[in-house]
């Protein structure tokens, strides 16, 4: 079998195509070597070594992370909500089987409780083997991993009990086609709301950006706004996500939360020591949109 034998790899190029998520365009990465292919109980998994972006994890044909640019996503989806909260002590991550978000949460010593809920153990195992820079966090004793569906986990959390609530919930899931479909529905945001402490914050990868399907972003923003008093759109730039950027929706239970302005910040020196992408300026800038997109999303 040749190193390039895979339905999504042609002449040594991996091609990401999705009529649902980004009709009429595609992204290609040059493949050096296929590292793993598998159909798990939940999804099709492909891990390959690319020529220029390091190892790449693909689920159901969609790129999840590449070693070269993953920090742009992991840092923003983690540090935006953490620095938007005055005193966060507990974080729940839904999805996130590559471990990158956990790695970022661990940079905040004051976070006492960290739980990750991943549906597919295979993703965690493969990340430990092929995405070592991300999966490193799984060794940390602070982290509790639950292998189950994130939606069911929230349903069963015992939403009345205070000790089961979180200050921050990060939905680091795959896209709406597949096992993460429920994470884009209103019922999920109700479950999130009830699983948060007062002044709690949620952030979710929006699967889209303003250049792709802005109408889906607007629907998602409205859906979240039917549950949370305040929701804002932010984005991060990631070359291996189609059209180079990915939207993030951040919402708070506190109607006075600013979200686009950090509540706390570190010195520039400390920021440079800890982060490759995030800093207090980019926190604010990531909410600023060009006029057409701003007007459309705020309408
Ligand atoms: N950064 C990525 C992105 O935006 O494309 C997300 C990466 S992370 C690998 C996504 C994870 O969500 C996958 O490991 C997948 O197995 C997990 N996932 C999908 N549906 C899930 C569910 N219902 N419950 C828990 N985890 C889920």
Automatic annotation (TrEMBL):
Residues 11-253 form the PABS domain. It is an enzyme of class 2 (transferase). Its EC number is 2.5.1.16. The active site is at 172 (proton acceptor). GO terms for cellular component: cytosol. Gene3D superfamilies: Spermidine synthase, tetramerisation domain (2.30.140.10), Vaccinia Virus protein VP39 (3.40.50.150). GO terms for biological process: pantothenate biosynthetic process; spermidine biosynthetic process. The keyword Transferase applies. Pfam families: Spermine_synt_N, Spermine_synth. GO terms for molecular function: spermidine synthase activity. InterPro entries: PABS, PABS_CS, SAM-dependent_MTases_sf, Spermi_synthase, Spermi_synthase_euk, Spermidine_synt_N, Spermidine_synt_N_sf. The keyword Transferase applies. It comes from the Eukaryota. Keywords: Polyamine biosynthesis, Transferase. PANTHER family: SPERMIDINE SYNTHASE, SPERMIDINE/SPERMINE SYNTHASE. NCBIfam families: PRK00811.1 (NF002010), speE (TIGR00417). Belongs to the spermidine/spermine synthase family. This is Spermidine synthase 2. It comes from Wickerhamomyces ciferrii (strain ATCC 14091 / BCRC 22168 / CBS 111 / JCM 3599 / NBRC 0793 / NRRL Y-1031 F-60-10). The lineage of its organism: Eukaryota, Fungi, Dikarya, Ascomycota, Saccharomycotina.
């Amino acid at each position: 079998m040749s190193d390039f034998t895979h339905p999504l790899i042609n002449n040594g190029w991996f091609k990401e195509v999705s009529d649902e998520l980004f009709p009429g365009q595609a992204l290609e990465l040059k493949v050096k070597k296929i590292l793993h292919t598998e159909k798990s109980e939940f999804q099709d998994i492909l891990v390959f070594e690319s020529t220029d972006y390091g190892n790449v994890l693909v689920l159901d044909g969609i790129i999840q992370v590449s070693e070269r640019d993953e920090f742009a996503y992991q840092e923003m989806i983690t540090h935006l909500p953490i620095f938007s909260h005055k005193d966060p002590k507990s974080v729940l991550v839904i999805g996130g089987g590559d471990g990158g978000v956990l790695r970022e949460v661990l940079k905040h010593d004051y976070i006492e409780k960290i739980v990750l809920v991943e549906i597919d153990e295979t993703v965690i195992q493969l990340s430990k083997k092929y995405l070592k820079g991300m999966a490193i966090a799984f060794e940390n004793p602070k982290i509790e991993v639950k292998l189950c569906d994130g939606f069911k986990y929230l349903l069963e959390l015992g939403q009345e009990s205070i000790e089961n609530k979180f200050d921050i919930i990060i939905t680091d899931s795959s896209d709406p086609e597949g096992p993460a479909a429920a994470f884009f529905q209103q019922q999920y945001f109700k479950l999130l709301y009830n699983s948060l402490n007062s002044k709690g914050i949620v952030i979710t990868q929006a699967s889209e950006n303003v250049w792709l399907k802005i109408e889906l972003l607007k629907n998602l923003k409205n859906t979240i706004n039917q549950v949370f008093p305040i929701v804002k759109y932010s984005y991060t730039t990631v070359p291996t996500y189609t059209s180079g950027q990915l939207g993030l929706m951040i919402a708070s239970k506190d109607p006075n939360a600013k979200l686009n302005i950090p509540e706390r910040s570190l010195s520039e020196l400390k920021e440079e020591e800890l982060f490759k992408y995030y800093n207090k300026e980019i926190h604010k800038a990531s909410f600023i949109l060009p006029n057409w997109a701003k007007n459309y999303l705020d309408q």
